[in-house]
Amino acid sequence: MSALFYLVACVILSIAVMVGIAFMSKVTTARLGNSISSVAMLLGIILILVHNQILAQWVIYVALFIGGAIGFTMAKRVKMIQMPQMVALLNGIGGAASAVVGIISALSDNTGSVYPMFERATAYLAIVIGMTTLVGSLVAAGKLHKVLPQRPLVWSFHSWGTSLSLIISFAFIVIGTVNAVGNPFWIVVGCFIFSSLFGLYFSVRVGGADMPITISLLNSLSGMAASIAGMAVGDVLLVSVGAIVGASGLLLTQIMCRAMNRSLMSILLGTGAKKVTPKTVVKESVKTEVQEIREEKKETKTAGSVLASAKNVIIVPGYGMALAQAQHQVKQ
User: Which residue ranges make up each domain of the chain?
Assistant: First the structure.
């Protein structure tokens, strides 16, 4: 396969992915967009296998079969109400795949490379972003599935832990890039551990109600990790498709923040989430009850009286009602 044909095919498949994402923005064309993107990704896998001349590796086909079977089974069994958890899990798998590519690239010998420092930097960066995406996505899926507490968790010195884990992760990237340590194994271990800690720290402080926004951000991070991993191994298609996924995920995150009237930084930094103790819970509950009683006395009309006097009432179910499976009772 010539290099020109490969580049043209990469451009066509990248455009197909963008068209598929554009179709997903409308209900009437969402299925078509999903199909276009899926077919483009399948053709991309085939293109990579042919271009790198690794069709004879039987392990690849075993992995494709196992992965396809797992994905098909999960897609068939998952309920629509569990789709956010499914998306979070898929984001985590994408981040893990990028981290694996980064680890392999970092541990491989790149002495004969034209840009060895660039390859090392992108490899370590893929590990950091990939592991952050994996751990954050697992926490998000666990919170939405009620395996983990849905309330924001703020530990002692939480902000310090978040900042230090991020700073140390990037310090390992810099050290590995300049090749200050002869053996890259310990750099990989450091990036792996501290980026995982950062993913844990920043995701546990996000409440369950804000998790859809966090999942959208993690979707963007998974695309970024894939694009950076593509830079590490020198694959144009992985770079372009990963960048498309990262950009679309970031745009979706901004749209969701505007719709929920929340800022992204307030969600990620857990603004308003405080360390909860029994005394503070009692004080806040008593204070809230007193304020509600005062407001009820001041107001002449209550919500019940307004609803009773209304001729038509429209109830719009949201994510919370869907999560509680209460829409059928409300309809009755």
Answer: 1-56, 85-269
